[in-house]
Amino acid sequence: MLKIDAFNIIEIIVNLLVLFIAVKLLFFKPILAIIAKRQEEAEAQFNEAAKKQEEADKLKDQYNNSLAEIEEEKRREVAAARKEADEKGRKIISDAREEAFKVSEKIVSEANAEKDKIIKSAEKDIADMVVDAATKIVGSKSGAEIDSSLYDEFLGKAGEVK
Questions:
Q1: Looking at residues 15-42, what average pLDDT do you find?
Q2: What is the DSSP letter of 25?
Q3: How far apart are CA 141 and CA 129, in angstroms?
Q4: Residue 1: its pLDDT value, please?
Q5: Which of 94, 120, 123, 137 is most buried by its number of CB atoms within 10 A?
Q6: What whole-number distance in Å separates Cα of residue 141 and Cα of residue 81?
Q7: Contacts for 161 with CB less than 8 Å, ≥ 6 apart
Q8: Domain span at 71
Q9: Is residue 4 included in any domain, yes or no?
């Protein structure tokens, strides 16, 4: 039968304590060390992942900033090109107007020269007609008749020239 005596209880308690210490030293301590090591590795991986996420965010920000700078540079270059094109267009128009003005002045000058030439030629022809008329009249008439006939002949020939 089972006897419960104090020595048996003390022996069981001592055995349990020894077993507890042995289990603690042999099993729990290495297991806790492994768990702690794995916990540290997991934390290290989380920290590394967080650092990589921060680096990725920084690179993304740099990319977005670079993209924004490129867009701004593109806008500035397009604006500069438009301004240059506008200036060249205005210069071309100004040069064309100036050339047209010079051509029109030249044409007017040539027309005036031609007009003066025609007028001088007409004056010469009229003077020749007057001299011819005067010689014809002077030879046959005198005084008031000469003046009247010269005037009539002049008007007749002047009307023919037109």
A1: 91
A2: I
A3: 17
A4: 54
A5: 137
A6: 87
A7: 122, 125, 126
A8: 9-161
A9: no
